Amino acid sequence: MPISVCCSSLFAGLAAVLMICCAHAQSTAPTARFAGIDWTKAEVVTVTMVDYAFSPQRVALHHGVPTRLHLVNGSADIHDFTAPDFFKTVDFRDPSVVGSSGVGIVVDPHQERDIDLIARLPGHFGLICADHDWAGMTANIVVD
Questions:
Q1: Domains of the chain: total
Q2: 138 and 113, same structural domain?
Q3: What is the pLDDT of residues 37-89, one digit of tens each?
Q4: Do residue 20 and residue 61 come from a single domain?
């Protein structure tokens, strides 16, 4: 067998193994990262969405601390918790909570959602309801 055919077969095989290993590492990374965390003891931060406002206006979290973000929609309108810059700096226990957009969490009328996360970095971040920011539905997230 010519060396070029042998080498290309070897490289193809190594590439396939590398792709499988990377896919496996990505699928298990959140589980490994959160192994040993007792989420029942997570710090709970409640944010209520009602009357085109977030309450509190200043959402405070601590970086490196397991947090359960408890979102409550107390209105008849759909609201979302949109904070793209903040979401880039957190690890979600379940990354699918932000959907395909990766920037917001939808909460249906009169519903509640719990989002488990760990903020990796301190900072100040904007928070809006993408459907109602025109009405002043904005707030701030502060991670110390």
A1: 2
A2: yes
A3: 899 999 999 999 998 999 999 999 999 999 999 999 999 999 999 999 999 99
A4: no
CATH code of 62's domain: 2.60.40.420
The residue range of the domain holding 18 is: 1-33
Tell me, yes or no, whether 46 and 6 share the same domain: no
Query: pLDDT band for position 103 (50/70/90)?
Result: confident
DSSP the chain: --HHHHHHHHHHHHHHHHHHHHHHHHHHHHHHHTTT--GGGSEEEEEEEETTEEESSEEEE-TTSEEEEEEEE-SSS-EEEE-HHHHTTEEESSGGGGTTTSSEEEE-TT-EEEEEEEE-S-EEEEEE-TTTGGGT-EEEEEE-
Reported pTM: 0.76
Burial 103-125 (b: 16+ CB within 10 A, else e): bbbbbeeeeeeebbbbbeeeeeb
Residue entry with tokens 């810059």: 85
